[in-house]
Amino acid sequence: MEQRPELPLPQLHAFVVLAEELHFGRAAARLGIAQPPLSQQIRRLEAKVGAPLLVRPPGPVALTPAGRELLPAARQALAALTDGLAAARAAAAGRTGTLRLGFAASLALTLLPGLLRTYLDRYPQVRLDIREMTTAPQLTALRDGSLDVGLLREPPSADPDLSFRTVLTEPFVAVLPRAHPLAAQRMVAPAELAEHPFVLLPREAGPGLHDRITGLCAPRVAQHATEWQTVCALVETGLGVSLAPASIRRIRLKGVAFRPLAATDARTVVAVAWRSGDDSPLVANLLETVTHPG
């Protein structure tokens, strides 16, 4: 087994200060102690080393060859400890490390950009591992520990392993080919959409959101697509119509029209999710930023 020297840090600190001052009185004053305790610290360190480290009065205080050899190593050890303590405190406060964050693609159009800017302004040394994922894969990744925090739509009503906090809600809109007859209306009733072929996310991508949409209009699904950008592109080609969160209106396609829904005040829920009992300061800081972004 490797033998490591037992050199108490107070003795190393006292030695470095005395080596810089080369005067027992000034060194003791810097350390905030009397001269006798300082002399005792140095003698104990010399006993550990097995050689004098300083030439003492009546002549001027000076480093011996052993002292000159020890000084750089002592300074390095103290600096490394200072750096290590700072790094440990930063990690404990969630100011360093890597946070793995999942997000639903549609949130890149609303919540995500501002949240990331604020979080990185507050914690610039944190590395973000950002992953675009639909709701169901996020929930799986959170449970198996490969994701720390998720931003998702329509979380499950209860999960023994996960905690959820609602971040925002938003209404739904009808997504229509611009030449579609319903696009001429100011508002569209969900029942009117149900009369036309539908482009929809597959249920396995996000069961909660899928069920919310099918509960509004019982659609005839003609085509599935896992991303809203693709849904809108398929609607533009005339393959069908769709229902989507209102933020999807920020996807600009010339051949697509978005219309508010009539006869319903249904809204989709966006939530932040994390493992229950996770005491990571990185997670706590992200949750605080989501809750208090200003």
TrEMBL record:
SUPFAM superfamilies: Periplasmic binding protein-like II (SSF53850), Winged helix' DNA-binding domain (SSF46785). The keyword 4Fe-4S does not apply. Keywords: DNA-binding, Transcription, Transcription regulation. InterPro entries: LysR_HTH_N (IPR000847), LysR_subst-bd (IPR005119), WH-like_DNA-bd_sf (IPR036388), WH_DNA-bd_sf (IPR036390). Signal peptide: none annotated. Residues 7-64 form the HTH lysR-type domain. The keyword Transcription applies. Belongs to the LysR transcriptional regulatory family. This is LysR family transcriptional regulator.
